[in-house]
Amino acid sequence: MPPSYNHNTNGINLTNYRLLTQSGRNSVGRNGYRAPYEWALESVDQMGAGAAENRLSTTLRDASTQLQANANATVANDINIVDKALQTKLSQTEQLKNMLETCLAEVVSEIAELLSTRKRLEERNGKVQAKMGVNNNRLQTRNGRPSREMTMDEVEKSLLKQQGMLGSFAERVSRAVAQVDKEVAQLEAVRARLEADLRDKTEALRVDEAVLSIPTDPSVEGVLSPTFRGRAVDCSPKTPHTWVRHTEDNLRNAHHWLADSARLRKAIAHAIASSRTTEHDVSARLNENMMAKVAATRNLRDELSNQLDRVREEQARARSQRSALAGALEAKRGPLAQARERLAVRRARPCRETVNDEVEAALAREVANLSAMTQQLSDKVNAVDREIAALDLAAAQLTDNIGDKDEALRIDERTVMLDGRINLSQRPPSSVASFAMSDMSAPRTATLQRIRELEASLTQARRERENMESSIRQLKDSMAGPAGY
């Protein structure tokens, strides 16, 4: 076993031994002479001391050489460990950075989709407001109908139903726009956190790469360390688990809001498609009811006109008949007066000659017959006069009714064409009235295709999230090794 430093092979402390050999050997007697054994012993001691110093120096050199070798090996091992740790850290940071970039791209894309959805909602709300305006104008226009035509018909019911439906949908659109704005604000906050985390990861990569590029040879001067050393920030370090969990929490929160936003867009797309279908059905029924009302009013007006013509024809015949009756009545009044005159003259005979003979009976019968016929003719004239008055009243009522029908028909036709149609034969514009099935098929197909695309994107996002969680678990597992250094 080699002697320890500053001790000889016998374990004697060389410092103390040096003091002993260097002192007390130079003593001189009173007469100025030294003893011979002291003279000889001094040389022996000095030679022993020289040999001990040689051994001490050799031991020191060997220990120094071994220390230098150990120091070099330790430094090389430490540098190797640091390099491996830096490379592992760079790989882990790069993985997190890639996941952040992917997630950030999804968030930016989702924000763009939400803004596009908001624009579609605003456009849809504008169309709904236009429909409500047309619907309200139709209601106000129909309020100008004559009182006879103010009925709660199918047109009025359809207009009120459509107005309520459009108002309800406008409220839902407003709530959906507010929800989209809230969702965009949440995603913007998520985007800010992801961008901040990504900036930190990018800067951390740059710093670690700079650390890795610093030369380990002390003879080579580094040019990066002063720059980064001046930018050092005093902050409490995190544990590797906390470091990964912070990014993992940001990613998990981002995917939560991405899924929530996708569900919101899907619900809005479904609501818009459903509302379009409902509006199409309601508008189609409204258009059918309006056209049916116009046709019914026109037909009824024509029937009233035909009846008025028949009444007027009957009036003409009744007046002609009255003229004939009046002529016959006037023709019977002369003979009746003559018969009465003859009967009165014959009754002027003397009392002895007053006999109810055949002449008397014939004259009396003639007067009675003429009186009865005259009375009947007079009654007929009066009856015809009453009927003519009734016909006049019926004609007046029919005329008033026809006038109201004409006014109602004009208003109903104007009501129909308030949506921009030039004439009644033109098909209603799709923006405010019913849609043809061929016109609806393309938007409906596009909407269904968009819904399928959203479902596919949700599935893809779910898979990416599962892959990201798997990568994070692998990253945590890989970080378990450096923790033991």
UniProtKB/TrEMBL annotation:
Is RNA-binding found in the keyword set? no
- According to the UniProt record, where is the region Disordered? 460-485
Keywords for the protein's UniProt record, in alphabetical order = Cell projection, Cilium, Coiled coil, Cytoplasm, Cytoskeleton, Flagellum
Give yes or no: UniProt keyword Coiled coil.
Answer: yes
Which BP terms from GO are recorded?
cilium assembly; cilium movement involved in cell motility
Superkingdom in the source lineage: Eukaryota
Q: Specify where it is mainly localized.
A: cytoplasm
Localization of this protein: Cytoplasm, Cytoskeleton, Flagellum axoneme
Taking the record's annotation, the residue ranges forming a coiled coil are: 104-131, 170-204, 287-321
Cellular component terms, GO, for this chain's entry? cilium; cytoplasm; microtubule cytoskeleton; nucleus
Pfam families per the record?
Tektin
Family per record: Belongs to the tektin family.
Q: What is this protein called?
A: Tektin
